[in-house]
Every structure is written in C-alpha cells, then in structure tokens.
Design goal:
338 residues, two-stranded antiparallel ribbon, 4 strands, ABC_transp_permease, transmembrane helix, transmembrane
C-alpha cells in the first residue's frame, strides 16, 4: 500500500524531461550519421569509392590503424597519452624483418617484435605509472630514444626489403599481410581477434573495472582498493604490445620497412580514438567505438586519394576532426554538469 501510494505521487515524465533524457543519444547518433553522410557524399562524387573491391581494400588498410588505435584507447581511457606508438611500431617491424632475413624463422621474428613492445610498455608504465612522470613527457622521451635506436639498427635508414628475399625465408611472414583464410584476409582475422580480446579485457575483467574507476577518479579508485599505479602501467604495456603487433602487420602487408613508415599513423590513431569517444552514447573512450573511428578515418583517407586530394587535405581534416571532437566533448561535459 505504501509503495503504491508513493508510486502514485511521483510526477509523470513531461515531454521536456523525455527530450532531455534522449538528447545525449541523439547527439551521439548525430556523429555517426555525420560520418555516414560524409561517406555517402564521397561515394556520390566518386562511385568507385563505394564499390566492393575498394571497400575490401579499405577494410584491409584499416586493420593496422584499428590495432594501433585500440591500444591507444586503453591508455587514453585512463586520461593518459602515448606518443611513442608509431615509432614502437616502426622499430618492432624493422626488428621482425631483420630477424627474419637473418634466417631465424617466423616464430623468432614475431617474438622479437612483441618483445620490443613489451619493453617499451614497461618503460612507459614505470615512468608514468610508478615514478609519476607526466605521460606526455615520458612517452615523448621514449619516442625520441626509439627514433635514435631505429636509425642505429637500420644504419641511418637502410630499408629491409622482404619481397626480394627467397620465399622459403619470408613466405610465412608475408602471408600474414597478403594471405587469406577462405575469403577473409588474415589481417582482418588478426584485427578481429585483437579487438575481441581488448574489449573483453576492458569490459569484462577486474582490470577493466579498475580502468573505469581510474577514468572516473583516480582518487576514488585508490580509496576503493584499486591498484591505480599497476592498472595505469598495465595500460601502457598493452598499448605498446599492440603497437608492436601493428608494426608487424604493416611490415607483412607492405613487404618493406624503413624507420618512419608508421609515423603518419600516430595522428590517425588519435583521430580514431577521439571520433570514437564522441560517437559513443556516453561520450567515453571505448574499444568498439574506437574501431568505428578507425574505419571512418581509413575511409576518409581513401576517399581523399580517389578525389585527387593529397596529404595536406588529409592532415587538415584530421586536425579539424580532433578539434571538433575536443569541442564536442567539452560541450557534452558542460551540459552534463548543468
């Protein structure tokens, strides 16, 4: 009786209240709709853009960016940043190729590449997570150090060309980038597996719940018993290992590696993460929405190429997209506080 009376006295939701509740979702869907409109507009100007062969090529191109951006999203979801991901991918890819050409086999090449990511991640994690060095400073320093390492091991930028080596030596490695399992490219399978593992780790594990608490408030996470430093450092390790894997994927796809190859992907990865955050219903950085952002960035780059617009347009649009994402994020936060 008492519960019924209390329920009966509660005011019915007004149209204004309903609109207020729906506004964040409408705003989020608006971002996705905007992406779709851009894609359809490019397709209307250049019909081949939406052709199946081109879309398949874009999907393969997006795999490396998606893996790189997913790793970055883990760090950024905890209000961190990693400026060393592109050079980590470069060095890992170069070492994998060099190890392979020295006749050590596919397993050794993959192990060497991922070991690079693990070491870089541990260094970043210790500096930013345990020593309290600002992440932007720590990862910038590691970026510069790795750039020097890349030049030393490559003898000032000498490329490693896998496609000219005997197939018996590099065939299995290059199959990662060019081979297929049935109709599905191996790169796509690798990206799907990485995304699935990253989603599970960040959404369905104790570590993932710790990430959510650190994202909301590191102080509150500490008081709740979350090992904040370990959680933050582990994010950098995951980010760097995925960056190394992205470097392997890029090297296997192109068949050649030289220091600086992955540099353009740094801006693309940030763009993908920010676009995914504003497309997310709650305005938060999430793995699956980062993948949506990566697909859009890859489609946009491909569309600009088909339209005959060069790198300046791509960099300008990526910069505008990042600024727009930051502005919309700030606006959403201000609206939520009201």
């Amino acid at each position: 009786m008492e519960q019924t009376a209390m329920t009966a006295t509660q005011p019915a939701p007004t149209p204004t209240t309903v609109k207020a509740r729906r506004r964040p979702k409408i705003t989020s869907y608006g971002t996705v709709i905007g992406m779709i409109v851009v894609v359809l507009a490019v397709g209307a100007i250049k019909p081949s853009f939406l052709g199946l062969p081109n879309l398949q090529a874009v999907l393969v191109e997006a795999t490396v960016l998606a893996v790189l951006a997913v790793g970055l999203s883990i760090v950024m979801s905890m209000k961190g940043i990693d400026l060393s991901i592109a050079v980590t991918a470069d060095v890992a890819g170069y070492i994998a190729a060099k190890t392979l050409l020295e006749g050590n086999g596919l397993g050794a090449a993959l192990f060497a590449a991922l070991a690079v990511g693990l070491v870089v991640g541990l260094v970043n994690g210790v500096l930013a997570g345990f020593l309290g060095v600002p992440a932007i400073v720590a990862t910038l320093g590691v970026n510069l150090l790795l750039s020097a390492v890349g030049l030393v091991i490559s003898d000032n930028g000498t490329p490693q060309q896998l496609f000219t080596a005997p197939a018996a030596v590099v065939g299995d490695f290059l199959a990662i980038g060019t081979g297929s399992v049935g109709p599905v490219r191996i790169l796509i399978i690798v990206a799907i597996v990485v995304v699935a593992i990253a989603w599970f780790a960040t959404r369905r594990t104790v570590w993932g719940r710790g990430i959510d608490l650190v994202e909301s408030s590191s102080r509150a996470a500490f008081l709740a018993g979350v090992p904040v430093r370990v959680t933050f450092a582990a994010g950098f390790v995951a980010c760097s290992v995925l960056a190394a894997l992205a470097g392997v994927m890029l090297t296997a796809r192109t068949g050649v590696v030289v220091p600086g190859t992955a540099a353009p992907l740094l801006l693309d990865a940030f763009t993908a993460v920010y676009l995914g955050s504003i497309a997310s219903p709650k305005g938060r950085i999430r793995v699956l929405w980062t993948v949506v952002g990566a697909l859009f960035v890859a489609l946009l780059a491909n569309g600009l190429t088909l339209l005959g617009l060069g790198a300046p347009w791509r960099f300008a649009l990526n910069g505008l997209l990042i600024l727009a994402a930051l502005a919309l994020g700030a606006l959403r936060t201000r609206t939520a506080r009201r």
